[in-house]
Structure prediction request, 570 residues.
Amino acid sequence: MLYPDTVESDVLVHKPWFITGLFAVVFAVFLAFDLTGTSLGDLMRPVIGDPAESGVYGRFAITFVIAVTLCLNIVLIGFAPLKVQVAVVWSELLLLFLAFFTTFNLSLPFMAEKLPFLITQGLFTTIYVSAISIVIASAIAILGAVAKLSTNGFAYAIASFYTSFFRGLPLLMQVYLIYLGLPQIGFVIDAVPAGILALSLCYGAYMTEIFRSGIQSIDRGQWEASRSIGFGFGVTMRKIILPQALPVIIPPTGNQFISMLKDSSLVSVIGVWELMFLARTLGQKSFQHMEMLISAAMLYWIVSIGLELIQSRIERHYARSKVR
Amino acid sequence: MSDTIIDVRNVSKWYGAFRVLTDVNLTVQKGERIVICGPSGSGKSTLIRCFNRLEAHQQGDIVVNGIILHDKMREVGAVRKNVGMVFQHFNLFPHMTVLMNCMVGPMWIKGVSQAEARKTALQFLERVRIPEQANKYPVQLSGGQQQRVAIARSLCMQPAVMLFDEPTSALDPEMVSEVLETMTSLAREGMTMVCVTHEMAFARAVADRVIFMNAGQIVEQGKPEEFFKNPQHERTKLFLSQILKH
Ligand SMILES: Nc1ncnc2c1ncn2[C@@H]1O[C@H](COP(=O)(O)OP(=O)(O)OP(=O)(O)O)[C@@H](O)[C@H]1O
Ligand SMILES: [Mg+2]
Prediction:
């Protein structure tokens, strides 16, 4: 929360100076582009006549309509309650994106035909590779964080070397190192396990740092209170420190999860049939790259939104003890 | 077993090169109420934090409940569960309700059932007179209420001795009395207590012995009447005159 002031202030988007300013800026920006040749120009035909011949007048009129629509839209949204505002703005932005995609002239039947396979093979692989990696990475992160905070020089050295190494090398490099390097020492590994290992180790390193800072953010008094009751290290960590560190850890960890979901596409270089790999190969055959790429993008986005929702649920759960 | 609960013999402690405690000797008998006072930085907190080994001492012996404290000990938990501690800043667990704060100790240390832990917790919350706050979270309570919860949390472990480290000095004046009342009633019921505090009225009313520390040493100790009426050392006189001025 930004903890808003209790004094009611005027809505920003209803202030005359803001509306005028916005109008001026939008007007100026759009005036810089000649939109008479676009579908907008076509729409304006009744007013400006043939768009191609309307000249400065046409350009002016189109820009004016855009600026007025935009400002009116914003002013109107300003009247709505918060939830409606969010819903309206989301749908408007989505519509804009849809409009953008329609300009590609995508073949919808082709997308519909390939989508099931894209989901059952590609998305499924992506999700299970990421899910397993996330679990392993979290386990590594807790161990790593405790080791980095411990007074044991051996543990600290290993943990700090680990985080330094795996944060310092490109993930792609790590994927190759594990897939091609391990067989060199006689340890042949399949593509999927190799990918999971690379993702877990890399994200475990980032998350070690997140967990470490989360644990460090807990007041020393909590350790002392816990010890003074008689709790040992394990109970103190599990029941007292980690539950309090979690609210600090969860937002950046959610970031990591989403980021890992998409970075899992890197394991396609060693031939794992995950979402990105399939999108590229399926599109290549019939030269319908855009269709497949956009389908994959949408699938990634949908799963990310799922993760975002889970994250906000967990955050709400932990906000309980903070309400006054 | 003897009636000595805490026995401190020639204890010294250093922070790096700085000597915080110098040859401290002190015995606390069962049922005794002891108040420790002294200027800021004199080592009062450090001393009582050695009693449950939140701090380690480097020289001398500390025996608590018959167990010698040292750095290789496995039974530090056995000592800590018999020694309750109340902190200046309460240190309640903010992610648990008041009731849970009081239940976790018995449940996870003594293996008491949840129902029984709950009963004990409610009983002690009753005793510190805030049973109605049981299902709130610590942030929803006033400072005085939080400190009383902290006392109840310690009591739930049914300790042999309670340590208080300036339990009222983070509180507003009107909340000080509610905490002191709780502590006084505890003392009346025969709890063994070691309190670091500057509440001299409390010391006069309940202490069996007042200990004055300065620069890591116990300078003077005695029954409260004598201690306040005619202190022996210049340093004690100076301290008392400053603190009683207010
Ligand atoms: N972790 C530490 N490292 C170094 N010096 C410390 C540490 N903790 C305390 N000290 C020093 O040890 C001395 C005694 O500290 P202590 O907290 O025991 O004093 P105190 O008598 O409780 O004072 P107060 O009344 O302010 O609480 C102080 O001079 C303090 O600066
Ligand atoms: Mg102190």
Notes: Chain A has two domains: 9-102, 108-323.
